[in-house]
Amino acid sequence: MKTEPSDPEGTRSRWTTRRWLRVGVATTLAVLTVLGALGGWGMWRTSQLTTELVDRRSPALIDAMRLEQALVNEETGVRGYGLSGRPDFLQPYRQGAGAEETTLGHLRTLVRDDARAVADLADVERLAGTWHERIARPVATASAADAVKLATRRATEGKTTFDALRGALARQQDHLESERTEARRELGRAQTLRNWMFAIIAGVIVLVAALVFEGLRRGVTGPLSRLGSDARDVAQGRFDRTITGSGPADLRRLASDVDSMRRRLVRELQFSEAARTKLDEQAQDLKRSNSELEQFAYVASHDLQEPLRKVSSFTQLLQRRYGGQLDAKADQYIAFAVDGANRMQTLINDLLAFSRVGRVHNDHRTVDLEEALSRVLDDISVAVEETGAEISHDALPTVVGDTTQLGMLWQNLLSNAIKFRSPDRQPHIHIGVVREGDTWEFAVDDNGIGIAPEFHEKVFAIFQRLHTKDAYPGTGIGLAMCKKVVEFHGGTIRIDPGYRLGTRVIFTLPAVGDGSVSPREETQP
Question: Staple partner for 183: which of 33, 53, 129, 173, CB 3.0–4.6 Å?
């Protein structure tokens, strides 16, 4: 059966950041463990050799020298006593014998693990024992006279025996000295090896740290930095820049996901751009159409003035000259013609005024609404006196707008409030104002006949009437004119559905400056 060859490189290319980190950390820990074991062994070996040298080799050599000194003291005391017969010469012998016994006990403990040192010590003990048995004890225990005779008789034997003992002591010391020297050399080699190990460990740790940082730079921080740079380029508008990933598999997948998002954004932007282009074209078409319609309305209303004037003049002339001379039917027809011509004249004038809003009157400046309202109240003073209407208002602010258009706004709102008054009560109209952030909100309240809720939006359409011309005269363009003026100044207008005492028209205008209002008292003409 044929098997596919293994591909370690391809396998590693599928490793994620987490797996790389796990492998890296495990490898680093293994290396550090090995290095720590080697360092520990070096420290242990150095400590062992130091202990061997300090606790055994050097003390053994020192005790060997002390043993020689003790035997020399013993030999001196015995020899002096044997020559002079004076007991006080035995004092060094007795002290040396005690020192010998103590030193031998120490030496046996120190050299028990060293075969050659044990053999040397046994040789020394054998010769020392022979010397003690043949020379030292017999002389030391004899009387003064016998000691002199015995020492003289055994002088040659004593010298030979002690010389042999000295030779054994010298060999013991030479062996111990050589062992101590070898221990020092071995300790020096162990310390050198330990120092090299620590240097190598330090170098390996630095190398591992450098490899870790380099691996993180190449595998994590580098790919992330490139991905972040590409993402910032895309965020700055370079949507044609392809985002390519590098490093571990999860970072490459992240780069692929970001690039997929970029491609989707490109598609949506292309769609949005196409839609915006189409919308701009439609807006241009609509603007052109509105301009043409406004121009048409203006031209139509302007050009219809002259023929309509002639029709109105001639029908009024017929009415004055032939009124009462014809039958009642003819008089009625002439009255219909005069009334129609007059209403057409009014309608054309209103349409002309409506078409001029935002086109002819467009002189924005600071407008004191108090002064604008005062001029309007002067203009409608006759209607106010005839109806007995009471008009009050709060202190009005100063806004930026067109004086003529804002005057038309006040006049239409107040004229409507007076026109649609209730027949069973005196008209009362109040203009309130309140500041709402960067906007002034005005409320024109009246106690008239009100507007049904289903007509609250309909009344702002041009030529929209809710009553017959016999009940309430007019062309139905007043509130449409108000809406156009308010919207031209950046505000909104609506009917308050919660007001039940009549009609409340609420409109807004942008505030200007600090919006300060002169502290006037509520006025009432």
Answer: 53
